[in-house]
Amino acid sequence: MSIQARVNGERLIRALADFAAIGATPSGGVNRQALSPEDRVARRLLAERALARGFSVHQDNAANLFIRRDGTEHALPALMIGSHLDSQPTGGRFDGALGTLSAFEVLEALADAEIPTARAIEVVSFTNEEGSRFTPGCMGSMAFAGVQAVGDWQGATATDGARFEDELAATLAALPEARMRQQRAEIFAFVELHIEQGPVLERAEVPIGVVTGVQGTRWIEVTFTGEAAHAGTTPREFRKDAMAAAARAIAELQAEIMPCDPQARLTVGRFSLEPGSINVIPRQVSFTVDLRHPDSAALAEIEQRLGDTCARAGAQAGCILAIERRLDMPPARFAPALAAATEAACRRLGIASWPMTSGAFHDALFVNRVAPSAMIFVPCRDGVSHNEAEFVADDHILQGAETLLELALD
Ligand code: GLV
Ligand code: MN
Ligand code: MN
Ligand code: MN
């Protein structure tokens, strides 16, 4: 006789701790960057747990990992749930892992209760959502949605020098028991549970955010090239100081963009200079700019201003400017019907919810192009994420997982 499906909270919280131990950092965070040995260990563990429960395991050529519990109606496309297992270099325990492991808990809860579903339910863990080791982020979901192909990233090198194709091949080979999928299996819809990564839900004391869309992101790499010279002997008018150009450009961007538009976000997250000697004028400086805005036209206008500001700063310092756009994710709106279904699921469970836009990008942004998608957010302490201190209260973990299960049963 079947019983009602219930999230096993203890098991889910234990699973989160088990995965947090893979790539654990001394400060309590996680360094499990995409396609790294740690990422492979996490994928292995999930695949082993899946096979032990009798679910089937598949991967595609982007090393997206799929765990399937079959439905009774084989002709119906599956409902997909999940997120990612890769992390930032100084990431938290919940970004990505919460959605992936909660989705796996949904499968286990259905199996425990012996509840058949008409559609298959597939848990997905997308490859390289973060984009910190290999640019761009969301590689796996982009490949899944056909927005880009794996071949587009041949030749990409990681921040640690590893080659994309080598790391991808090693990751695929690490799961020989996974069946290879040559083509994307049709899906009915996708639901991704994730931590909010900002302060809105916690401040409002609302446990569930129903995500209606995602703001746009552009990643830009700026390089100023001048000339290395002696720090002590080179008069001002002879200098081609790449650092002077970069410092001026960054200061102007910080002063212009966000103060003039409260919806804009601008972050210089990576910075390098050469040759990097105390008494040598820097020859070359490169930095990355992460730009976000909910409005496409505003994002394009900010990128234009960034180009103008950098060109002025380069000319003033006698340096050559090169700008390369590394990523362009336009803002997206999720399927209103699925957002309504998420709200209704929360109402049935007696959990308060709140509609909101995501400030971070997520795999659902790309899956949304090929199937209706939705996201469920839960609060994180002090809104802190992409930080080893990231923390989610057990109650919020459970409410998120219960909402996901309720939707899966809808
Ligand atoms: C991805 O994690 C992002 O930067 O939004
Ligand atoms: Mn994430
Ligand atoms: Mn992230
Ligand atoms: Mn993200």
From TrEMBL:
Keywords from the UniProt entry: Hydrolase
One of the record's GO molecular function terms: hydrolase activity
SUPFAM superfamilies: Bacterial exopeptidase dimerisation domain, Zn-dependent exopeptidases
Residue ranges occupied by any Peptidase M20 dimerisation domain in the UniProt entry: 213-312
Gene3D superfamilies linked: 3.30.70.360, Zn peptidases
Keyword Hydrolase: yes
Tree of life domain: Bacteria
Entry keyword Acyltransferase: no
Any Pfam family matching the protein: M20_dimer
PANTHER family reported for this sequence: ALLANTOATE AMIDOHYDROLASE (PTHR32494:SF5), ALLANTOATE DEIMINASE-RELATED (PTHR32494)
Family designation: Belongs to the peptidase M20 family.
Protein name stated in the entry: Zn-dependent hydrolase
Organism, scientific name: Xaviernesmea rhizosphaerae
